[in-house]
Specification:
28% of the residues lie in helices and 17% in strands. It has 357 residues and is α/β, with parallel strands linked by helices.
């Protein structure tokens, strides 16, 4: 049975920051306003003649980023379980309209008390949460890598870099700057991913724009990248803005794009999974990266790659992102030992972190 092409739409929306509210009650009022704005824009997209089957909202779309708040304060201010208060309004909308809704939230799961995660989610047309990926590569937030040993014991392998097998095809989700880490998309492709959804909240970066195209071409996947409208979350003074929501096919060709940072739902395109599946089977030499891949050659090199140390917060959760400075120092030392970094000259100091804490 063939699958007809289906439509994906980016919800390019502005969002307020819960961290800037006067108190926790005010933070949840911010979240409620963001949810209302998001639902309104999804409804606008659904009223269009070319109605989407799937929509993607930006990273930080509901809560904004913590901007240096301590972990326990941010959990109280803006986090919930998934499913939970953050997802319930979208679950109701997805069920009522029979659509898929995907994006990103800050999740505080009951099974990992004292920790929150930058979590990618997808809700199916029956209203259930059908996908959850807890982001690994972060700078200013906790990561499951912080307690890798325990997390891997408790988490089925196919849920570490999950792929949802849906009537629309096989779908993975990667947030924001993690798209520049090729291993994440590669692991999802190993799980069968045909589409990567990319909720992001980012200013212009040539590296990230190139990474989107590269992830498509090297994995033969479609990508639906939904960015924030107006100022990005890490730019409270409004200096840096979003825009550039983008849909690309499995060759890296643009299907829809919006350079501007205004709110809207006009970045929308058809996703042709049958075409992708046919092209993945076609021997076109190295332009098809799958048929001639030699992954066995890389295994010993990855096995020797130990740079940023795992299990840094296994005994107790991270309390503030500044506590990662010791891990960064160890990563530098490990990279020096491997020859990736050149040791500093006597008396020189490493540059200060530019991570937005």
């Amino acid at each position: 049975m063939t699958m007809p092409p289906w439509r994906a739409t980016c919800i390019q929306m502005q969002c307020e920051r819960a961290c800037q509210a006067a108190d926790d009650a005010g933070g949840w009022q911010v979240i409620a306003r963001n949810q209302s704005r998001m639902i309104g824009l999804i409804e606008v997209a659904l009223a269009e003649p070319e109605r989407p089957d799937l929509v993607v909202f930006p990273e930080f779309g509901m809560q904004g980023p913590p901007l240096g708040m301590a972990v326990e304060d941010w959990i109280r201010r803006a986090c919930s379980t998934v499913p939970g208060p953050l997802t319930e309004p979208l679950q109701a909308l997805a069920k009522r309209e029979g659509i898929y809704i995907a994006g990103n939230v800050f999740e505080a799961p009951e099974e990992w008390p004292g920790r929150y995660f930058n979590t990618c989610i997808m809700i199916g047309p029956d209203g259930d949460v059908i996908y959850r990926y807890r982001r690994v590569n972060v700078a200013a937030f906790p990561s499951v890598h912080d307690f890798l040993s325990d997390y891997m014991k408790a988490t089925p392998k196919d849920q570490v870099f999950p792929v949802a097998d849906t009537p629309l095809g096989k779908i993975g989700i990667i947030a924001c700057g993690e798209i520049t880490v090729p291993e994440v998309a590669r692991c999802m492709m190993f799980g069968g991913a045909e589409v990567i959804l990319h909720p992001t909240n980012s200013r212009y970066s040539a590296a990230q724009e190139a990474a989107k195209l590269a992830r498509c071409a090297e994995n033969m996947i479609y990508m639906v990248s939904a960015n924030v409208a107006g100022p990005i979350g890490f730019s409270p003074d409004g200096t840096f803005t979003g825009g550039r929501s983008h849909i690309l096919d499995h060759w890296g060709q643009t299907l829809a794009f919006e350079e501007g940072d205004a709110e809207g739902t006009n970045v929308s395109a058809l996703i042709d999974i049958e075409r992708l599946r046919a092209d993945r089977r076609n021997d076109t030499g190295l332009s098809n990266p799958h048929l001639r891949a030699r992954y066995e050659m890389y295994v010993p090199f990855y096995a020797d790659a130990h740079f940023y140390p795992p299990d840094q917060f296994r005994a107790s959760p991270m309390k503030h992102a500044s506590e990662t400075h010791g891990a960064i120092a160890q990563a530098r030392a490990n990279l020096e030992a491997a020859g990736v970094l050149v040791p500093l000259s006597a008396g020189a100091e490493d540059p200060a972190s530019t991570v937005e804490l």
